[in-house]
Amino acid sequence: MKTKNILILLSAGFGGLLLMGSARANSPGESSTDRTEVPYFWTPSMKEGVDALPLKSTDVQVKIEGMLATVTVSQVYRNEGTVPIEASYIFPGSTRAAVNDLRFTIGERVISAEIQEKEEARRTYEAAKTEGKRTVLLEQHRPNVFQMKVANILPADVVSVQLVYTETLPRENGDYEFVYPTVVGPRYVGDPEAQAGNSTEWVHSPFLSPETEVAAPEFRLSVDLTPGQTIRRIGSPSHKVDIDYREADHAVLELTPAPLRSDDRDFILRYSLADEEPEVGILLTKTEDGGYFLVNLEPPARQASGVAMPREYLFLLDVSGSMEGFPLTIAKQVMGGLIEDLGSGDSFNIVAFAGSSEVFSERVSAKVSPSSKQRALEWIDGLSGMGGTNLLPALKRVLQLPRDEGTSRTVVVITDGYVVVEREAFELIRNSLGEANLFALGIGSSVNRHLIEGMARAGGGDEFVATNIREGKEVGAQLIKMVRNPVLTQISLDWEGLEVKEMLPERQPDLFLDKPVRVIGRFEGEWGGRLTVTGKAGSDDFEQTVELGNGNQPSVGSIGILWAREKVQALTDSLLFGDEGSVRSQIVELGLRYRLLTRYTSFVAVEEVIARQEEDLATVKQPVPLPAGVSSLAVGAGIPASPEPETVGLVLLVLGALAVLFWSSRKKDAQ
């Protein structure tokens, strides 16, 4: 009888734990409505006659001249159903993109878009949709996340939408890099109450399950490369490409096979030029009353001299559900390489986080030694991907760890970045980092580059992205090499004979080995005079002078748009500290003046012909594939993909206690 009672107790205890897990998944502040505002898998449950997959193809044409890329993206929507539809599509963009044009084509008619304040653009779009007119709306939700809406696509209609943007290309380790993101990864929202004022409606978008068999959209991409110098090397680490060398300084690339079906990873192009040591380079756009300039500062050939200060490394490692599988495998290998490369005299610590976090060395950072390295590698190897991505508490924890006296601190964050708290993370870094610097390493085929680049910018460091195991090993070595070799500090730009009105960034970051710095600005009056760049290369003085107005500065037409984009980025960052109303009005003014897509300005286009009469309109959310390598655990209805570490521990503890009671009772029964 006692044994039976104990069995009942065991069942009740286990049931209680299950209920506790359910309560944990449905925590306070997470209603059923909240749970729908997360990524979910698409199911073909639309009503009869509705084309649930209206996006048929995406064609990307890239023109690269010098260090600038102009990108034209064409999306083709075709309604193969019998009901008029409104198509909604969430898609990614480059974090550096200055989107400045939109138009759509229906038949032989081309309708150009207007740039309007976001709320006004929505009203224009909704009014046209209600009136039955074909209309297109392009909005920005994050600097790298856009939403396209196309309304009143009639049965058999084919609507082609083209957007155009310009961006500068980064250069690292001698290679220029162009990235075209293809899919927005699933984002972890977390506690809805913590997201007050942080719109995340766009997050609840459908993803195609890996098991779903549907006709995915076609994807084409071509690149016309004329960098202005002899091309030494060109290739793509992400895709197969056909390369046609037209001249020594001209090549055309196309994806192969073409078209691809439902591309699920970022397209990456890298190329290097024959000139090994480019000097300070300047691009120029002249206007009636002045103009804009873009300065490219290359690191000096020699490294900083002097004895390096001992350094403390703090690693923040994402082990959430979206990292499970190949991203976590890469992250572990990167961490292994970073730990192995640490030098004697250095110290280190590691914080692993998902829904909660745990630290490798609780009291103080571990001194680098063979035994501490081995313990760290074993600790890392035991980590597994589970649960949500609570970045902010983990970031706060790592920034508050006790600091080693007499050391220089470097923080390294390793994550796929699938969160929606970018602004809060940037603010936390700026307010809490102190004299340390922070480097961000993105892991995965389609990482959140807005978060990765923004954290590095806020932390005065640099960003890296590893899309596969081979790249993971390379970027880990590059990161340690860069941190150990700041080659130019205390940088100053002196403009003599030129009236410079504004320069971004206002404070020049340090130059690291093989990593140039770009400065963009606005001037008034005539272009001329001289620019002198000074700084400290270790204990040595550095100085370089460039004569302006001698015809050596190429003139291009897009620097003004890029300046406006950088100004918007600077103002967006200042939202954390300044008056939101004032900042918003400045961003709106820039967006309207330069025809620039921003968080407060949108593109809207309306065909002034009534296409839909009395028929009902069905709204369709275009599903997208999961990024390559991302686990299905990253997608769900707000319930943790796996139990958190403390939940697992509590379950084991309670079950263990119940087991002791059970066997104790059996023993007494037997006696």
UniProtKB/TrEMBL annotation:
Domain of life: Bacteria
Keyword Membrane: yes
Pfam family, one: VWA_3
InterPro entries linked: VIT, VWF_A, vWFA_dom_sf
Keywords: Membrane, Signal, Transmembrane, Transmembrane helix
Stored SUPFAM superfamilies: vWA-like
PROSITE patterns per the UniProt record, alphabetical: VIT, VWFA
Record's keyword annotation contains Secreted: no
Signal peptide range: 1-25
Domain annotation VIT: ranges: 39-167
Membrane-spanning intervals of the chain: 647-665
VWFA domain residues: 312-483
Stated name of the protein: VWA domain-containing protein
Organism: Puniceicoccus vermicola
Higher taxonomy: Bacteria, Pseudomonadati, Verrucomicrobiota, Opitutia, Puniceicoccales
